[in-house]
Specification:
The complex is a heterodimer of chains A (294) and B (238). Chain A has a two-stranded antiparallel sheet. In chain A, strand 1 and strand 2 form a beta hairpin. Chain A has 13 helices and two strands. Chain A is mainly α. The two termini of chain B are 31 Å apart. Classes of the chains: A mainly alpha (294), B alpha/beta (238). Chains A and B meet through helix 6 and helix 7 of A and helix 2 of B.
């Protein structure tokens, strides 16, 4: 029973990691930029919805709609103003500056806005599906928010796989990641995909934040920790394959839950990251990290 | 447009320009930051022509075709079949019938050969199923039967000659009326180069306009109906 509940807990946590990892890998594929602000979009979504419902007495549905619309507008403007200057100007920025620092700075910016608007307390968006935990029989339980998180992660994972493997647009996205110049030669406007996928990944992160926050609660600086887990899971997929990133995220979540349950709740993260670091050192090629280092 | 690799009737295997302007370039300039690679280049290519753009390395030939394709910052006017082409729209030229097979192929090494070729259809078809079923895609594959066993293989694992065939097939999948090929034999063995030129000859005989960029013009001039010589970023002979 304990093992079953730990695995269920791990799947829920892993789904969260997997989703953020997919967001990171998806955008890296097309832009070669690591989105270190993806967790901040989750945080701002959760805290924004909480603020609109709890403080301004909005209904949940319009609050969610407004936050998603705000994220879309912000994502669009960020691409048009910042990324366009960095990547599309006559002096195109490349290398580690673009890879890391543009979204690192964005993460701090969103954190600052959240602290200003929502303070430093822990809050959570109201549960989209409220009620007691669901019993799966045999003493196994799962939170309703957890069910939504797992279901949404599955839908997103399947949708991404279908788009990337089964559509010409998906192959165009892959081509952008493979060869920026080669993609433009066949008429693929990689700027359009970069903008579209930045907005899509921000919206997905926002939805996950809203669905997941009833489980963990968020504060203004929760985004960095979420981004980190997504970043690590995406790293294990070489930042290139959203599908592999999803599997890596799930694996990390389950491993973390099992370590917390059977080894030490306090040191679960430490042991987990030590194991992951060891795995990278032993077999970087299996993790796809050789591609990134190259 | 349905085409086959059979020479057009009455063309005698050597189609020549029919007088219609396929490509009109006027006062083209290409710059990289403060470095000007091409200055004030003007020429026309008639439909059905095979034009060799020749000249030593580093003199602006590739910049000219990349400027025409809208892939680098350019000034001046480019018109394809009478339509002026905007400078910053990479999809315009392939959508209107001009496709570039670039120097060093520029394939997607981790994608399969099949995916590389079908992506050539991107500018005119947005459905994967329709792209695979399109006549241009079928003909692109037909021109290089040696690729049929390699379709599932990653493009990056092919030999240089096979990669060049994939690049040309990808270009043809766009169903271009004008195909520009930049240094098609760069780094290839003699027998492979002959195979590539044989394919270019068939493409031209089937009625397509060709613009071949070559440093060593011997082979290109056997196929070309006209030559344009570029030195120091300007046309010295057209």
């Amino acid at each position: 029973m304990k093992l079953g509940n730990l695995i269920i807990s791990g799947i829920v946590t892993g789904s969260i990691y997997a989703s953020f990892a997919a967001c990171v890998a998806l955008w890296y594929r097309v832009s070669n930029i690591l989105n270190l602000a993806v967790g901040d979009f989750a945080m701002i979504g959760a805290l924004g919805v909480d603020n609109l419902v709890r403080v301004h007495h909005w209904k949940l549905a319009p609050a969610i709609a407004v936050m998603l619309a705000a994220v879309v507008v912000f994502g669009y403007l960020y691409d048009r103003i910042v990324l366009r200057l960095a990547q599309d100007g006559r002096t195109r920025q490349e290398g580690i500056v673009v890879t890391f620092f543009f979204t690192f700075a964005l993460s701090f910016f969103i954190e600052g806005i959240a602290e200003l608007l929502y303070g430093t307390d822990v809050h959570a968006a109201p549960a989209v599906w409220s009620g007691q935990s669901l019993s799966l029989g045999g003493g196994l339980h799962i939170d309703r928010a957890g069910v939504l998180v797992v279901a949404f992660a599955a839908v997103v994972g399947i949708a991404l796989a279908l788009v990337l493997r089964g559509t010409l647009q998906g192959k165009a996205i892959e081509a952008c990641g493979e060869n920026f110049f080669g993609a433009r030669i066949v008429g693929i406007d990689n700027r359009k995909y970069r903008r579209l996928l930045f907005i899509v990944s921000a919206v997905l992160a926002c939805v996950f934040g809203i669905l997941e926050s009833p489980i963990t609660g968020y504060t203004y600086n929760s985004g960095a920790a979420i981004s980190l887990t997504g970043f690590i899971a995406a790293a294990y997929a070489g930042f290139q394959k959203p599908g592999k990133a999803v599997v890596a995220g799930l694996g990390i979540g389950i491993l973390e839950a099992l370590l917390g349950g059977y080894v030490s709740a306090n040191y679960a993260d430490t042991i987990l990251y030590a194991l992951l670091a060891a795995a990278v050192l032993i077999r970087p090629s299996a993790m796809g990290l050789d591609v990134v280092l190259e | 447009m349905e085409r086959s690799w059979t020479p057009r009737a009455g063309a005698g295997g050597e189609p020549v320009g029919n007088g219609t302007s396929a490509l009109a370039i006027s006062n083209l300039a290409v710059t990289y930051g403060r470095v000007a690679a091409v200055h004030d280049v003007s020429f026309e290519v008639a439909e059905g022509d095979c034009v060799a753009l020749i000249g030593p390395n580093g003199n602006g030939k590739s910049s000219i075709v990349m400027g025409i394709a809208g892939l680098v910052h350019r000034h001046g006017k480019v018109a394809i079949f009478g339509r002026p082409a905007p400078a910053n729209d990479v999809s315009f030229m392939p959508r209107h019938g001009f496709t570039l097979v670039p120097e060093r192929r520029q394939l997607y090494p981790q994608l399969s050969v099949a995916d590389n070729i079908v992506l050539g259809c991107y500018s005119r078809i947005r459905s994967l199923r329709r792209a695979r079923a399109s006549e241009a895609h079928r003909q692109a594959l037909e021109l290089f039967p040696e690729l049929s066993k390699r379709m599932a293989q990653k493009a990056g694992t092919l030999s240089g000659g096979e990669q060049q065939m994939v690049a040309i097939a990808r270009g043809l999948a766009a169903d271009p009326r004008i195909l520009a090929v930049d240094e098609p034999c760069l780094g290839l063995a003699e027998t492979v180069s002959r195979r590539v030129y044989e394919a270019l000859r068939r493409i031209h005989e089937a009625g397509r306009t060709l613009l071949i960029v070559e440093e060593s013009p011997t082979r290109a001039l056997q196929l070309a109906t006209r030559q344009i010589e570029v030195r120091n970023g300007v046309v010295v002979r057209a």
